[in-house]
Amino acid sequence: MISLKLDRPDLIRTGAYIGGQWITDGPTFKVQNPADGSVVAEVLDGGPELARQAADAAAEAFETWRKALPKTRSDLLRRWFDLVTRHAEDLARLMSLEQGKPLSESRAEIAYGAGYIEWFSEEARRNGGDVIPRNKDGREMFALTEPLGVAAVVTPWNFPNAMIARKMAPAIAAGCTVVGKPAADTPLSALALAALAEEAEFPPGLLNLVPAAHGNARGVVQAWQDDMRVRKLSFTGSTQTGRKLAEAAAPTLKRLSLELGGDAPFIVLDDADLDVALQALKAAKFRNGGQACTAANRVLVHRDVQDAFVARIEALIDGLKVGPATDPEAEIGPLIHQDAVAKVERLVGQAIEAGAQLRRGGRVHPQLGGTFYAPTLLTGVTAEMEISRTEVFGPVIALQTFADEAEAIRMANDTEYGLAAYLFSKDAGRCWRMTRALEFGVVGVNEGLVSTEVAPFGGVKQSGYGREGSIHGLSEYQSLKYVCFGGIGD
């Protein structure tokens, strides 16, 4: 068995981090390990007053940070990256404790999140603008990039390190200061990042975090929504919540980045390499137990290769190891809580009642029980079933078939969401043609793991707007100032 004991237990922080100080006095809420229900820590339950204090600290720090040289921002982020990398194992263990995912996945996420810090530490040095060609004599024109101001970031529980790192790093690189609220189920990973930011000698007020239980989360975010000094809100979560945040941001005309729900199609064409598609499906469906907005939600397979692909999936599922993070062989951990289990059970049950065939799983894990759900395969699924139109957020493959390329595109696009899609074929021309037709912000072609700090990530339609990662992620925290410099002669 693997020990999840930290070499540096002081990285487990339980307070709010505001203005360079840790605030620990006040009511608390419990953070539980979803694998066994044990209490990992009791964390300060912040509210609107702490949120306003955080905004005050960030607004004050912004007046100095906005003027910091690009090299200063870059060097600071690099120190943070070095500390995150140095303590990656402890951060991974902490994540597995509060989120439940296998330790191998936690290690991968820490490296992935650190990649955003490193990337934007480098982009900070290239934070420039444009020289605009003159349109008349005696004039020069420029477009300058400037930081928006205080940026609020609100993150989900499923990737508690990477999601907040990929929001905070570009904000800081752009010259913004940050207020943030991590998810109530998994606040410890974000607070550990704040502890390392403190060690990296972040100026007081540059980064501020306010944890809150579910009941207080709305009040924390609303305090930032009402504050004119908070000029940016970046949120990852459900489409329903994203719509409410967009409405609440209207009075102050905040800039928004919304990375919302997904209903990702996974298209396997008749000429696909089925072994390549299978390994990609393993990553796109079973990573984090299917608890990802990019998870393959609808597996669409050409009817001519259905039998061969289903046989491969059954063999894959038979070989998957489900277990807690302390099991070194575990590939799939628990779902986040009992409500998540109940949702998966309901969707699977409805699909079976409507005519889907259960080929594997379909129940809580027979040995582990609790929040562990057995990897599941359903065939004969149709587009009318709720499981085809709702993010499952569990280790369930819901397989449909199609007859030709045109039907595959129609089925894939028949959703209000548009975050990620996956496509498998050996024909390059076909791949290009279908990629153009897919109405999604991210398309993986013969690839199941597509997220990276060097590429823009985000959706279309009801999956939101804005991009994270790449140079486009930096611009989300910047405004453009046009300067027309006249009277300078020929």
UniProtKB/TrEMBL annotation:
Domain Aldehyde dehydrogenase stretches: 25-483
GO molecular-function terms, A-Z: oxidoreductase activity
Superkingdom of source: Bacteria
Signal peptide feature range: none
SUPFAM superfamilies for this protein: ALDH-like (SSF53720)
Enzyme class of the recorded protein, top EC level: oxidoreductase
Entries under Gene3D superfamilies matching the protein: Aldehyde Dehydrogenase, Chain A, domain 1 (3.40.605.10), Aldehyde Dehydrogenase, Chain A, domain 2 (3.40.309.10)
EC numbers on record: 1.2.1.-
UniProt entry keywords in alphabetical sequence: Oxidoreductase
Family per record: Belongs to the aldehyde dehydrogenase family.
Protein name: NAD-dependent succinate-semialdehyde dehydrogenase
Organism name: Peiella sedimenti
